[in-house]
Design a protein that fits this description.
Elements lengths: L6 E5 L3 H13 L4 E5 L3 H12 L10 E4 L10 E4 L11 H21 L5 E4 L4 H12 L6 E3 L3 H15 L6 E2 L18 E2 L2 E2 H6 L3 H8 L1 H6 L1 H9 L4 H15 L4 E10 L5 E12 L2 E5 L6 H20 L3
Parallel strand pairs: 1-2, 1-4, 2-3, 4-5, 5-6
Antiparallel strand pairs: 7-8, 8-9, 10-11, 11-12
The structure holds nicotinamide-adenine-dinucleotide.
Length: about 325
């Protein structure tokens, strides 16, 4: 008999929130999932639709649409609510409106006594994670964002394709901003236990260039999906699932999430994507990669981009 039920609150039942919820239903591993959205009718419809698949699911679970009071005892609140860009709206204005969305969510969520872990997916995810941390007043360990988890998965997939191996056997990270200034530290990329840089030594120049060009392919991936189908959601849904499971099962897995740096990598006071150990309490510690001087410089630039974006909205 379990002591406590494993409960997830999904706040924002759009493409991203529901891709996660559907993945959670298919994979199992929680006992209860509450869906919250400002559009209550949509949340209710989504709950019905998921429940109609329960008979085929791996495990039984309770799924329902609810309010913030229903989230009070959740282990993790997945923050996937957001507003979309208005025509002509700049990045800063969109960010300000999304911060207002988080304020509208976090005030009632906290006043209901929610004491779990906040996991943000809303973009720009690094600054939104910082907003969640500031608005909640929670310890930094308990507030994280999806960061470069999806970007790292994209890199691993592409490397897996190039070397014809399972992406699970590719150990490579994308770090920095989840966005244009992110970087792939090639010095830290491995296939099994072989460094990608060593594998490439004997390969023709074109092949080396094709591999290093994958970092551009990763940073442009979201735009290409958006051009083709207007939004990205399955990949991020699975990234959220991976992080939530690491929390629920106290896995101590290393995942590239957005977390607050306070001295690590020589950086201060910035939420940014880095590998970190994820436990039931959230982020236990940041894993410091041995970056080359050039990678370090690129990482600092990415952090500075995020700091400036945060400052532009008073964060
Ligand atoms: P969507 O428009 O489909 O869904 C957003 C949902 O938020 C809507 O259902 C809306 O009603 C709800 N919402 C808005 N204001 C709310 C409020 N105050 N309270 C509760 N709910 C509210 O958007 P989406 O495609 O699901 O994307 C959601 C966010 O995830 C966006 O910011 C998007 O950019 C981001 N995203 C992040 C990544 C990543 O890697 N981190 C990847 C893809 C998308």
């Amino acid at each position: 008999m379990k002591d406590k039920i494993r409960k997830i609150a999904v706040i924002g039942t759009g493409f991203v929130g529901m891709s996660f919820a559907y993945a959670m239903l298919c994979d199992g591993g929680c006992d209860e999932m509450v869906l919250v959205d400002i559009d209550e009718k949509k949340a209710a419809g989504e709950a019905m639709d998921l429940n109609h698949g329960l008979a085929f699911a791996r495990e039984n679970m309770k799924i329902y649409a609810g309010g913030y009071a229903d989230c009070a005892d959740a282990d993790v609140a997945v923050l996937a609510a957001g507003v979309s860009q208005k025509p002509g709206e700049d990045r800063r204005a969109l960010l300000s409106r999304n911060i207002e969305v988080f304020r509208a969510i976090l005030l009632p969520l906290l006043s209901c006594g929610f004491n779990g872990i906040l996991l943000a997916a809303t973009n720009p995810v690094d600054v939104m994670s910082r907003a969640a941390w500031k608005l909640s007043g929670f310890d930094k360990k308990r507030v994280l964002g999806t960061g470069t988890a999806l970007d790292s998965a994209r890199l691993r997939y592409l490397l897996g394709e190039k070397f014809s191996v399972d992406p699970k056997n590719v150990h490579a990270y994308v770090i920095g901003e989840h966005g244009d200034s992110e970087l792939c530290p090639w010095s830290q990329a491995y296939v099994s236990t072989k460094a990608v840089i060593d594998i490439l030594k004997d390969r023709p120049q074109e092949e080396q260039e094709a591999i290093f060009a994958l970092s551009k392919e990763v940073s442009g991936a979201a735009m290409r999906v958006i051009e083709a189908k207007k939004a990205t959601y399955y990949g991020i849904g699975l990234a959220l699932l991976r992080i939530v499971k690491a929390i629920l099962s106290d896995e101590k897995s290393i995942l590239t999430v957005s977390t607050l740096l306070q001295g690590e990598y020589g950086e201060e006071d910035v939420f940014v994507g880095v590998p970190a150990v994820i436990t039931k309490d959230g982020v236990r510690e940041v894993v410091s990669l041995s970056l080359t001087p050039q990678e370090t410089q690129q990482f600092h630039l990415s952090c500075e981009t995020l700091r400036q974006l945060g400052r532009s909205v008073g964060l």
